[in-house]
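Input (structure):
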């Protein structure tokens, strides 16, 4: 997902939820650009058995998300954290609820707040954040042109330094116009999508909307690695150039959302797909 550069959001830094990647509406975002020499190890490192489970949500209790673990962004993000998307985010149970041991984030074709669709965006900001560790999210993604689900992280310091200086880690992004194509990215002050310099890669993963898959990230002071079902697909390394390139040595919070349309989702939206949903079986954090 993408956010406004710091210079464009200074007026909203006091808001506790100014967290989504946004470009000025007059800017046409570039297509994702792979780094010149992406690091794509084919052999994953040995499993670190020392890490212990420090936080999780199994979504096995209650009918709505646990408010001790999650908060919501409400609205369109037009004040700084949106991406020119077509949905209005709510905290309604129709958009975010627990069913059969899964978190359901459902996008619906209904008008609210001047938008034609509703959905939900959950985040752990102000409740839990982490520096380094292993993050595992088992999820099934929606299918349909116009959908844009994401599992991602932002730096706690976004309210003071803004995006992209705070750093952003995209554990998984998918857009319905490129079915089964999974994207991974990291964004920093000097490596980000507005400059076309983000560290990024994408690969086809069959059946992301038919079956659950485990999206995993291994994060350390030296690198961030992205896996699907245990297979390593991309590494974003710390090249020792400083925090303008690798700000990922400070706490980040987690976000789960299903956007419709927008800068990455595209202007074409298939109304026949609604209601559509992202299902999350669990979120687990190990350190």
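Output (sequence):
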């Amino acid at each position: 997902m993408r956010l406004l550069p710091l210079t464009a959001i200074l007026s909203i830094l006091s808001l506790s939820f100014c967290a989504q990647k946004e470009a000025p509406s007059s800017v046409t975002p570039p297509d994702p650009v792979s780094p010149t020499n992406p690091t794509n190890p084919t052999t994953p490192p040995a499993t670190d058995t020392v890490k212990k489970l420090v936080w999780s949500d199994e979504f096995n209790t209650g009918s709505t998300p646990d408010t001790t673990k999650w908060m919501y962004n409400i609205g369109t993000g037009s004040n700084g954290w949106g991406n020119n998307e077509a949905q209005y985010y709510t905290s309604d149970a129709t958009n975010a609820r627990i069913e059969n041991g899964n978190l359901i984030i459902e996008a619906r074709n209904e008008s609210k707040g001047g938008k034609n669709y509703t959905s939900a965006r959950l985040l752990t900001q102000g409740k839990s954040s982490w520096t380094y560790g292993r993050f595992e999210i088992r999820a099934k993604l929606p299918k349909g042109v116009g959908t844009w689900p994401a599992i991602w992280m932002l730096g706690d310091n976004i309210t003071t330094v803004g995006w992209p200086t705070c750093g952003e880690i995209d554990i998984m992004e998918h857009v319905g116009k490129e079915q089964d194509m999974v994207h991974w990215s990291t964004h920093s002050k000097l490596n980000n999508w507005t400059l076309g310099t983000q560290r990024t890669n994408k690969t086809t993963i069959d059946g992301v909307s038919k079956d659950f898959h485990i999206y995993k990230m291994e994060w350390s002071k030296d690198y961030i690695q992205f896996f699907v079902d245990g297979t390593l697909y991309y590494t974003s390394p710390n090249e020792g150039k400083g925090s303008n390139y690798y700000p990922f040595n400070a706490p980040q919070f987690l976000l789960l959302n299903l956007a419709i349309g927008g800068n990455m989702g595209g202007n074409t939206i298939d109304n026949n797909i609604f209601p559509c949903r992202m299902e999350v079986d669990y979120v687990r954090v190990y350190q």
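Notes: Confidence is low (pLDDT under 50) at residues 6-38. The chain is about 5% helix and 35% strand.
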